[in-house]
Automatic annotation (TrEMBL):
A single GO BP: adaptive immune response
Keyword Signal: yes
Record keywords, A-Z: Adaptive immunity, Cell membrane, Disulfide bond, Immunity, Immunoglobulin, Immunoglobulin domain, Membrane, Secreted, Signal
Protein's recorded name: IG c648_heavy_IGHV6-1_IGHD6-6_IGHJ6
Residues annotated as domain Ig-like: 1-111
SUPFAM superfamilies documented for this protein: Immunoglobulin
Principal localisation: membrane
Species the sequence originates in: Homo sapiens (Human)
Length: 129
């Protein structure tokens, strides 16, 4: 049974970097038929896919246009986890953040939120001074 366990600070000051980690059990971050995603939910934006990483002989990264200039998603094979970094946060980045797995038998894993197979528990992050 695959499980995702999120960790990271729940309060971040404006202009700082939001950092969250998603630990994987029952699966491997380097599995060749999975993509590892970050998604957030807020009243103003609804559910918003932020980005993903996946391994297909090498690591690939896809990011939403809305955050592309300030996001980084990084796999850590030694700890079997992946992380989210979002730079220069503002109060608009206040949301519930989720990590999620999407599985695909093809080399192009689907990344839209409704196609996610396993979700983390969610972390409420508030951006405030």
């Amino acid at each position: 049974q695959e499980q995702l366990q999120q960790s990271g600070p729940r309060l971040v000051k404006p202009s700082q970097t939001l950092s969250l980690t998603c630990a994987i059990s029952g699966d491997s971050v380097s599995r060749s038929s999975a993509a590892w995603n970050w998604i957030r939910q807020s009243p103003s934006r609804g559910l918003e896919w932020l980005g993903r990483t996946y391994y297909r002989s090498k690591w690939y990264y896809d990011y939403a246009v809305s955050v592309k200039s300030r996001i980084s998603i990084n796999p850590d094979t030694s700890k079997n986890q992946f992380s989210l970094q979002l730079d220069s946060v503002t109060p608009e980045d206040t949301a519930i953040y989720y990590c999620a797995i999407s599985y695909s038998s093809s080399s192009e894993a689907v990344y839209y939120y409704y196609a996610m197979d396993v979700w983390g528990q969610g972390t409420t992050v508030t951006v405030s001074s």
